[in-house]
Design a protein that fits this description.
GO terms for molecular function: zinc ion binding. This protein is an alpha+beta fold. Helices cover 42% and strands 21% of the residues.
Length: 963
């Protein structure tokens, strides 16, 4: 025992806090004077201490060791008592004087402390629930040496009473209602067989539904299994102990004290043994501590030792007097002396104990102490931190780091990291950071620092262990982006790629491949293996680099993404939503910003494969811009230009250095490049015109491109063929003519007018007039063209001769011979028309004059009707008869109901009236008038015809002011 350290983790508590006085020392505490008898037994529980005396009284003491109340439990003496934990019940065994010698005086009583009954005027006593005789005929009387009550499910109790004859009497059941069973257990007899050894100690052990009872005699330790019938006995040891040296630990192990040692027993036999010298007067268990009152055989003085068995230290040691009883209550160890003095000992708080250890630099003891007492993790971490600081101050860095590692999760990592930032202690720092990552508590900065440690140490093996799991499928315990950034910066690109691939960060994986390693083929292969969505995102991100170095392969990947050519089974019809789910080519246009020729190739292949793309308008617009623009350059040309320019520059420098200069080769190269560029422009514009036509055929109502944009592009880049096509499709014929005028293409003008000026084909005949005006204002000799134009003007009769003469007279280079034949023919034609018109006028005048005379005759002269036959029936006309002014006569019976109109002349008259009504109706139909006006070659004739029919002149004027 001399090797065990001694500490003062306990202290005597003043009576005011743990004893029964008012703030004095513990020596002033004593059993209250109201308790006159000698204390024979005591028990703690439910915030009170119960003491039994030899005069049969029981006193209940409060926290200040003041008497709450006392009562007469037994007539003679209280032998044993125990307060129950689950119910406020007190069980006592005592001696009651009996007048009859036939019955035993030893009784067991059960008191309900919650039910206090009045006894007289000054005292109170709890209600006695039940009184049982301990000894009966079947259970002979003997001296009681030990007593213990086990609470099962209330109100079931199991009471064990140990006797000096080697028997244990057990009472089980509801004691209050006396629904009990009794049985007895016998321990083995003395070795000499003469007498049985007394029971010096008992203890209950409960494991689920299994109840077991330890029994101790001076020469044996036995275990009874009470859950089997009959109870089975098992001998655990052939040594025992004396009275009061038996206790139960919190793990339900039996503790017995002998002079040479303290023994622990489990259900299968003897357990640990602790060699503490001295006679064990009392043995107890308190909050994980072993309590022993050891009496010196020479001085007969007692010493209280409190042992911390886990940490192998003596938590407290103090001399005590003659102790008669001890009990644990309120978190204190309470010793009752033979002279009724009370000694109260309490455990110091954890902080005080740790301060005591820290002052002595006993950090190991402190750590063991907090761990054994199950302190909170924060407190344990604080002890470890202080220990680590102590070791760090002694420059024991490895040991200090081992302590700091145990604080992970409670101590701020920066506190430790700052101590080990020195390059000489980088190994310790690496170890700490590794543990930080293993527990998932590392931040981005910690990951950065750890990887920097690996790279500075050039420890590739540890870097591999950190980055790559053994099976390759473990959880990533660090920040992915940080790890990749650090590995890239340190040149560990393979590690960075591994992390990116494992984390599914495809964009970072490709970033390393392309920007750091330049492995373009591998990057393309990786993209090909991704899902469509991921592949599309990565191509958007790094497409510019791929197009710059592997354009053809990149275009191929894009075509697979946008057309699904790689998986024909997934292709759907034009109305399927599938087309909306695959990427659009327009999503990737920006990656071709420096390589428009490959964009052109990509879009051309796409429209060949997909005819019903939702983005076809944007695609055609982009292609048109590529086809029509003048400054599109190819990489091959750019590379050649750059290479040749570089060579030219070098050559110039050499020639200058050698004293001569020549530009023949340079001029040849430039001429070759210009020829190639011009050919390229011609080819692209041919494709552009084909695209304009194929995307707007005669069957299409609207084109597959933006017409306004196409017009702007063609106009900006002076693409004449495209402009002519678009103007013609838009029926902007005058703009078509303007294009030929600007180009000074006379034959093209005439051909265009032949095509677009034919009214029978829906053309605009007025174009001939514009063409004639153009030649009239040209200011140069264009006789041949004018004659050809006049032929068509005369044929279509779209321009009056006077206008022809006025228009051509403005060109001083034209002679009269150009129009002489045309004018002669027109004059002859006009003369014929005039002659015909004069004949028609004379005829109409004669008819008009005849009508006037007839009307006048009808108005002024009598009309003689001489017709003798009826016009209708051709019979002789007789009265009654009806005569009409048209000189037709009818029988009245032949007319029927219609006697106001001549049946013979009525149809002709009616047709005239209907024609008149129709003309008046047409006069109100303005749309018809303007349609006829636009559709006629001679608009004046239409207007004159309307006037001749009297339609225009008969418009009504609404009355003023509504009248």
């Amino acid at each position: 025992m001399y090797q065990w350290r001694k500490f003062e983790f306990f202290e005597e508590k003043a009576a005011g806090r743990g004893g029964g006085g008012g703030g004095g020392s513990s020596s002033s505490a004593a059993v209250p004077a109201e308790i006159a008898g000698r204390v024979t037994c005591c028990s703690g529980g439910r915030g009170r201490v119960a003491v039994g005396c030899d005069d049969g009284t029981v006193g209940l003491l409060d926290r200040g060791f003041r008497l709450s109340y006392g009562f007469q439990a037994h007539a003679a003496s209280v032998l044993f008592l125990q307060q129950l934990k689950q119910k406020n019940v007190l069980v006592t065994v005592g001696d009651d004087d009996q007048s009859s010698s036939q019955s035993s005086a030893i009784c067991l009583k059960v008191f309900d402390l919650d039910k206090v009954q009045e006894e007289g005027s000054s005292t109170t006593a709890p209600f006695c629930v039940q009184i049982l005789r301990v000894f009966t005929d079947q259970f002979p009387q003997a001296k009681i040496t030990s007593f213990m009550v086990l609470e099962e499910a209330p109100p079931i109790l199991l009471i064990a009473i140990g006797l000096d004859n080697g028997f244990i009497y057990c009472i089980k059941g509801d004691i209050a209602r006396e629904r009990i069973t009794r049985f007895k257990l016998q321990v083995e007899a003395a070795p000499d067989g003469s007498t049985s050894l007394p029971i010096t100690g008992i203890g209950f052990r409960v494991e689920g539904q299994a109840h077991q009872l330890f029994a101790v005699t001076p020469s044996s330790v036995s275990l009874f299994s009470l859950h089997v019938q009959p109870p089975r006995r098992q001998t655990l040891d052939q040594i025992g102990c004396q009275t009061n040296a038996v206790a139960m630990s919190d793990r339900m192990d039996l503790i017995i004290g002998r002079p040479e040692a303290v023994y622990f027993y489990e259900v299968d036999g003897r357990g640990p043994c602790w060699a503490f010298d001295g006679e064990k007067k009392f043995v107890g268990w308190f909050r994980g501590y072993l309590l022993c009152i050891i009496e010196d055989q020479r001085t007969h003085k007692g010493t209280l030792n409190v042992y911390d068995l886990k940490n192998r230290l003596i938590a407290h040691s103090m001399p005590v007097g003659d102790v008669s009883h001890f009990v644990c209550e309120w978190g204190y160890i309470i010793l009752i002396m033979a002279d009724k003095k009370i000694l109260c000992i309490g455990e110091k708080d954890m902080e005080s104990k740790l301060d005591m250890l820290f002052k002595k630099n006993l950090y190991t003891v402190a750590i063991n102490l907090v761990q054994s007492q199950q302190a909170d993790p924060a407190s344990t971490a604080e002890v470890l931190r202080k220990y680590g600081d102590h070791l760090y101050g002694k420059q024991e860095y490895d040991e200090a780091m081992s302590q700091y590692i145990h604080t992970i999760g409670h101590l701020e990592p920066s506190y430790v990291i700052q101590k080990f930032l020195d390059a000489k202690r980088i190994y310790n720092l690496t170890n700490y950071l590794e543990k930080l990552h293993d527990r998932g508590l590392a931040s981005k900065d910690h990951t950065t620092l750890l990887l920097n440690c690996y790279t500075k140490l050039k420890d590739v093996e540890k870097l591999n262990d950190f980055i790559k799991d053994e099976d390759g499928i473990g959880e990533i315990k660090f920040d992915v982006e940080t790890a990749i950034r650090v590995c890239r910066a340190a040149g560990y690109h393979e590690h960075a790629m591994f992390v990116a691939k494992k984390a599914g960060r495809h964009e970072l994986y490709l970033k390393i491949l392309l920007e750091d390693l330049g492995r373009y083929d591998e990057a393309l292969q990786y993209i090909s293996g991704l899902e469509a969505n991921q592949a599309g995102l990565t191509v958007k991100e790094y497409g510019k680099i791929l197009v710059e170095h592997r354009p053809a392969e990149t275009v191929e990947i894009l075509l697979r993404l946008c057309t699904d050519v790689g998986d024909p089974t997934t292709r759907r019809g034009s109305n399927s939503m599938h087309l909306l789910m695959i990427p659009s080519p327009m999503d990737f246009v920006n990656i071709f910003v420096h390589s428009p020729q490959y964009l052109m190739e990509f879009l051309e292949n796409y429209i060949k494969a997909v005819k019903d793309s939702p983005a076809q308008t944007e695609i055609h617009n982009t292609l048109l811009e590529l086809y029509i623009s003048n400054d599109l350059s190819f990489p091959s040309m750019s590379q050649e230009n750059g290479f040749e320019s570089h060579n030219i520059t070098e050559a110039k420098g050499k020639e200058t250095a050698n004293g001569y200069k020549s530009g023949t080769r340079e001029k040849a190269n430039v001429g070759k490049e210009d020829t190639k560029l011009a050919k390229n422009i011609v080819d692209r514009r041919r494709k552009g015109l084909a695209l304009l036509k194929s995307a707007w055929t005669s069957e299409m109502e609207d084109p597959l491109y933006d017409v306004d944009l196409a017009l702007i592009l063609c106009n900006t880049h002076a693409f004449k063929d495209g402009l002519l096509f678009l103007y013609e499709k838009l029926k902007l014929y005058k703009e078509v003519i303007s294009c030929y005028k600007q180009a000074h293409d006379h034959q093209g003008l005439i051909a265009c007018c032949k095509k677009l000026g034919d009214s029978s084909q829906g053309g605009d005949p007025s174009l001939w007039g514009d063409l004639l005006k153009y030649f009239g204002e040209l200011g140069e000799d264009c006789s041949t063209e004018v004659k050809e134009v006049l032929t068509y003007i005369e044929k279509e009769d779209v321009v009056p001769p006077i206008v022809v003469l006025q228009t051509l007279s403005k060109n001083p280079c034209l002679t009269l011979s150009v129009v002489k034949d045309y004018i002669a023919r027109k004059l002859e034609q006009e003369s014929k028309l005039i002659e015909e018109d004069r004949k028609s006028i004379d005829k109409y005048q004669e008819e008009t004059e005849l009508m006037k005379r007839e009307i006048e005759d009808l108005k002024t002269n009598a009309k003689v009707f001489q017709l003798s036959k009826c016009t209708a029936c051709t019979f002789t006309l007789d009265l009654p008869a009806v005569h009409f002014m048209c000189m037709h006569s009818f029988h009245l019976r032949c007319l029927g109901d219609n006697e106001k109109e001549c049946p013979e002349c009525a149809p002709e008259y009616r047709s005239v009236m209907e024609a008149k009504q129709k003309l008046e109706q047409n006069a109100r139909d303005h749309d018809l008038f303007f349609r006829q006006l636009r559709g006629s070659k001679d608009g004046f004739s239409v207007i004159a015809d309307y006037f001749s029919k009297g339609i225009v002149s008969k418009t009504t004027v609404p009355p003023e002011n509504g009248r």
